[in-house]
Amino acid sequence: MEFKTIIEPFKIHSVAPIAMTTEVQREQYIKSVGFNLFSLHSDDVLIDLLTDSGTGAMSRNQWAAIQHGDESYAGSPSWLIFEAAVKNLFPYEHVIPTHQGRAAEKILFTAIGGSGKVIPSNTHFDTTRANIEYSKAEAVDLVIPEGRDPSSLHPFKGNMDVVELEKFINETGVAHIPAVMMTITNNSGGGQPVSLANLKAVSAICKKYGIPFFLDACRFAENAWFIREREEGQSERDVIEIVREIASLADGMTMSAKKDPLGNIGGWLAMNDEALASVCRNLLILTEGFPTYGGLAGRDLEALAVGLTEVVSHDYLRYRIRSTAYLGNALAEMGIPVVQPIGGHAVYIDAKAFLPHIPPLQYPGQSLAIELYKVGGVRGCEIGTVMFGRKPDGSEVPAAMELVRLAIPRRTYTQSHIDYVIEVCAEVANRASQFRGYKIVKEPAALRHFTSQFAPL
Ligand SMILES: *Cc1c(COP(=O)(O)O)cnc(C)c1O
After folding, report:
1. What is the structure's pLDDT at 159?
2. Of the candidates 122, 177, 417, 441, which lies 20 to 30 Å from 427 by C-alpha distance?
3. Residues 6+ apart with CB under 8 A from 444
4. Parallel/antiparallel/unpaired status of strands 267-271 and 94-98
């Protein structure tokens, strides 16, 4: 008998209070910070779905591992425990610890990027793109067309368009392509997975042309679970086996340990190429630290080693993916437009369809995110024209999509919290026709979504 209720496969071990607030108070709080959700005190948020990055709960075994941490500068046993845990899943020759994912990206692209270089991916995450561009190289997205269509039900919308990839390699020239990357799951594309067959096809193309293949593997376990659930011939396999097969298809990886490794901080860079690893370790020493700790404390390395064993648990992954779908499906059933199919770590509300009376340059996503906060204290994140609309030449154009992302921190909220979020969304849907657009009254030079101030129209 499979029961309908998704019980969390853990019980609560330590609690943090949620301060209850009223709608009147929240109207005051959001107004006082210029209607920017990033500027709120998190104590004034009831359910914080701003991001799943570093916001998860650690297990008692992780907290025990924290106590076991050894802070020797060089050659700490905590480093050896971490390195073994990484290699157990991703058996690359060289593992280089960093303080988070973008530090690994900065080192990698300092080593292999530079002007005249182009790096294709299914979809580069924004820090990956920024680090590639900062090195003066170019970042190119070659996701399948279904990956750009919010209503397509393709099971692997994160897949690379392999025909386009091969065409791109032939037109650009191998000498200009220092690596091909794949983001699993495809974060910027809605947390959509990549199939094993697609990873094999990309790997084969990379081998054929002699181009190194790197994974941006932040949500490798969620991706492997989707492969097990959705891909033919995979349903009997252990997730660990699928992860190791994915690793074997690539030459290296970048990682943010704030995602699937179940840490609050951390990351790494790994590869087989000895000469490249040596360049990267020298860069690591300049900005992060000695190669046996990177930017991390020994205790962090130990917590991540334990997290890596917990995240591949089938009970955990079944719960994780089902509980994200539970929120997404509930919203879809009440007629709220969401990106389909529901991804691994977040639900994306289509604000353009939800608030059709608000034009893109009046920021429907921002309006919706503000109302979710005012009505129920739920904090999501606008991913639309506020985030992407300002072009380098100063002009403002509507983004391709107007989304509000509700990202689910790992092992942090219970089903009753999520039922509350669903009720808040229902109330917001009732009031939707009354919501108004916003204008920006104060804007920084770059990355405006973090600090801009808004006023209602
Ligand atoms: C979060 C993330 C990164 C960057 O990692 P940080 O730890 O935030 O620096 C890179 N790629 C993807 C796909 C991510 O989700």
Report:
1. 98
2. 441
3. 450, 451, 452
4. antiparallel
User: Could you list the residue range(s) of the whole structural domain that residue 196 is in?
Assistant: 60-310
**Ligand 1: does its nearest atom lie under 6 Å from the Cβ of 59?**
no
What's the residue count for the chain? 457
**Longest Cα separation, the chain:** 62
Pocket test for ligand 1, best of 256, 259, 300, 447 (most atoms within 8 A of CB): 256
- With a 6 Å cutoff on the Cβ, whether 102 touches ligand 1 is yes
The CATH number given to whatever domain includes residue 294 is 3.40.640.10
- Map tokens 């606008």 to a residue: 382
Q: Per-residue pLDDT tens for 310-331?
A: 999 999 999 999 999 999 999 9
Integer Cα distance of 403 and 389 in angstroms = 13
Statement to judge: residues 245 and 103 lie in one domain: yes
* Contacts for 257 with CB less than 8 Å, ≥ 6 apart: 100, 101, 263, 265, 266, 267, 268, 304, 307
d(CA 384, CA 369): 11
Per-residue tokens: 180: 């091909």
Per-residue pLDDT of 411-446, as tens digits, reads 999 999 999 999 999 999 999 999 999 999 999 887
User: At how many degrees (to 10) do helices 60-68 and 298-310 cross?
Assistant: 150
User: What is the distance between the alpha carbons of residues 337 and 354, in angstroms, rounded to a whole number?
Assistant: 6
In this prediction, residue 316 carries a pLDDT of: 98
